[in-house]
Amino acid sequence: MSTLEIRDLHVSVAHSDATAQPIDILKGVNLTVRSGETHAIMGPNGSGKSTLSYAIAGHPKYTVTSGTITLDGEDVLEMSVDERARAGLFLAMQYPVEVPGVSMSNFLRTAVTAVRGEAPKLRHWVKEVKSAMGELEIKDEFADRSVNEGFSGGEKKRHEILQLGLLKPKIAILDETDSGLDVDALRVVSEGVNTYKERGWVDSTGTPVGGGVLLITHYTRILRYIKPDFVHVFVGGQIVQSGGAELADELEANGYAGFTQAATTGA
Ligand SMILES: Nc1ncnc2c1ncn2[C@@H]1O[C@H](COP(=O)(O)OP(=O)(O)OP(=O)(O)O)[C@@H](O)[C@H]1O
Ligand SMILES: [Mg+2]
Question: Any idea what the CATH number is for the domain that residue 16 is in?
Answer without folding.
Answer: 3.40.50.300
